[in-house]
Structure formats: structure tokens, C-alpha cells
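dumping this here so i dont lose it again. seq + smiles for guanosine-5'-triphosphate
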Amino acid sequence: MNVLVEKLRGGSRRAVARLLTMVENEREGADEALAALFPHTGRAWVIGITGAPGTGKSSLVNALAKALRRQERTVGIIAVDPTSPFTGGAILGDRIRMRDLAGDAGVFIRSMATRGSLGGLARATRDAIRVLDAAGFDVVLVETVGAGQSEVDIVRTAQTTVVVEAPGLGDDVQAIKAGILEIADVLVVNKADRPGADNTVRALRAMLELGHPVSRQQVVAHHGQLMNAAEPDVQTEPESLWVPPIVKTAATDETGFDELLAALERHHQHLRNGDVAAALERQRVEIELYDRLRQTLLSRLLAAVPPDQLAHVIERVQARELDPLRAVHAILTIASQQES
Ligand SMILES: Nc1nc2c(ncn2[C@@H]2O[C@H](COP(=O)(O)OP(=O)(O)OP(=O)(O)O)[C@@H](O)[C@H]2O)c(=O)[nH]1
Ligand SMILES: [Mg+2]
């Protein structure tokens, strides 16, 4: 077996750190390590935490991790920051927000910032979760700023998704604006110590009544090609219905975290009922395979097309000499000629 993976399985924090860096940067050996890791994954409970900037996600992750530690569960944390191209401000802030957890051997925290494409970030997050999963962490918390499709992609890796809302960010419910209400398994109104929290709860409840039962089915449907993903039929299987509960918290003084943990546990239990978990897992596998196929085929194809010829095709489209569809066929023809 892979030496580093062996060390990771043996409980080495250095191996966790090194493997995380390796898979995040797609360093040499990352693929082999991930292949060796894979049979040891699938045990951790992955919880995604998303919401508008400043709603208190990092503070909530900190308080949630502490609550989980009190139950003697080990916790891996990945803080994804898709907005910042640097490992700068936000992550420094996270360090402060999560400083309570420093020095606890049952906790491992890693921050990741965007490098290159957002698609790359989703991949890196998925791989990083696998590292922490194989390392034996009972729960993996993934924090990401909820700002649309890219976060939805990241969060879909999670088994349980928490969408965080806070009062006093204007009249709108931020989660609706960002299009992430649909992915919530549990809704949190954080900063409940501030005025307006009950209004936010009411607004969310009204939205849920309009849109329920939401579930991930719609997210998948938005993605087009995965419409056939095996999904329990909510019409005929009422037990597979899940209506997201709304929980009020104050992350800074840890109010409401027993209720939050209980809501999360209920969702975890719901996943274990019937075939819900298996169906969702199948969906995740399918989504990942499509993503990877798309990436692999594209890079393989582009590697077979000389850059000057590709540039020429692009110029012809720009000059309206060639329409985009025929341009694609032209590129495919060039690639197959190069290969033969
Ligand atoms: N009053 C109050 N303030 C809170 C609460 N939770 C977080 N905050 C404060 O809100 C600010 C933002 O908190 P963060 O935890 O960094 O929020 P975040 O959602 O992780 O922020 P980004 O990662 O930058 O999107 C900080 O100043 C926190 O101290 C809360 O429950 N009540
Ligand atoms: Mg944060």
C-alpha cells in the first residue's frame, strides 16, 4: 500500500496534512494516493455549511465542532473560500473564529482558496473530504460561501447540507437570492441574539411552504443530463419526504447548538431509512463520474489539437466565417487527424 496512506491510516497528522496538500495541488502521486485511500472512505458523515458572506458560518462550524467533540466524535474541517484568490484575509479570519479548536488532536482544520477554475475547487474539495474520511474523522464539516452554482456543486458532496441565514442583512432572504435554499436539509437562522431573527424565521418558513418538498431532485434536474439519476419517488414514498427544519442559533455564545445537533441527527437518521442514502450516494457517484469524464475527455482532446490550429478555428468563429457548432466539428476532425 501507499506509504503515506498507511501513515494516514495509522493516525499521523503529518500524513493528513501532506496528503491534503498533495491532492489539493494535484501533485505527482496524488492519483495513486487517492486510489489507495478510496476503499477506506464512505464512513464519515459529511456536513456542508453554506450561506451568504458574514452570516456566521465559520463561527457556527467552530461551535458545532465543539458540540461534536463533547460527544467524543472527531471532526475534520474544510473551509473553502471561492471568492478569494489568495490564502489571505478570510482564512486568517477563520483561524481566529476557530481558535477554540486549536491543539485538539480530534480536530483537523484545512482552508482552501480558489486556484484556477471553480470546477477545480469542487474537485479539490471532494478529494480533501476523502483524505479526512480515510483518516478516520467521524464528521467532516465543509464551509463554503453560498453564492450560486459553484457552491451548489461543492455542497452536493455533503450528505447533510446546512444553509445559514442571519437577520439584518437587508429585507431579502439571502439564501433565496443566492439560489441555495433548495439544497438545505437544515436551515439555520444564526445571530439569533440580534433583532429580526424571528422575522427571518417567518420569511424562511413562508418560502418553504411555497416550495416544499424541495429536496435535491430539483438541483439534479437543473443539471440536465442527470435527470434519470435514481431517486426515491416522493409521491409514492412519503417516508422519504424531508422538510428542512429551521433552527435558531447564536454561534458566538453557542446558543441553540443542542437543537442544531438534534436536527442534524434526525437528518442523518432519515438518510439511513430505506434507500434514501443509497439513492443519494448513487447520484453523487454519477455526478462525479460525469464531471471527471468531461474534464478528462476535454483535456485529452485539447492535447491532441495544435494550439495554432485551435487559435485559427477561434478566429474564424470570431470573424463569423464558421458557426460554433461547425467549429466544434472542425476541432474534433483536427484531433482525430493528429491521433491517426
Ligand atoms: N451577534 C452575533 N454575531 C455573530 C454570530 N455568529 C457570528 N457572528 C459574527 O459575525 C461575523 C462574521 O462571522 P463569520 O463566522 O466569520 O461568518 P462567515 O459566514 O464565516 O463569513 P465569511 O466566511 O466571510 O462568509 C463575525 O464578526 C462574528 O463574530 C452570532 O450568532 N451573533
Ligand atoms: Mg467563514
